[in-house]
Amino acid sequence: MAQVHxxxxxxxxxxxxxxxxxxxxRTAYLEDLCVxxxxxxxxxxxxxxxxxxxxAKERGAQRMDLKVWEFNEPxxxxxxxxGMSTQCRILEKEL
Length: 95
Description:
The protein is of the alpha+beta class and 95 residues long. The chain contains 3 helices and 2 strands; from the N terminus they run αβαβα. The chain has a two-stranded parallel sheet.
């Protein structure tokens, strides 16, 4: 988990920061949900996601956001199967 975090988050200028404009709505942010390859497709990820959703709701969150990389099609499909939808896309161009 620490390795995934280091690869995708540490030192990036686009790390998640709560918006000061979203005062009326409480948003939970799921940072990293990882299941090791040998344990995938056993319902573990779904259980983790549902537990995180329930805890966020208990704490007053009205929605949950997360970031998934465009190249990670299996993760995009997984989150779509859990009812998540694309909120926005961040585009980039190497210069």
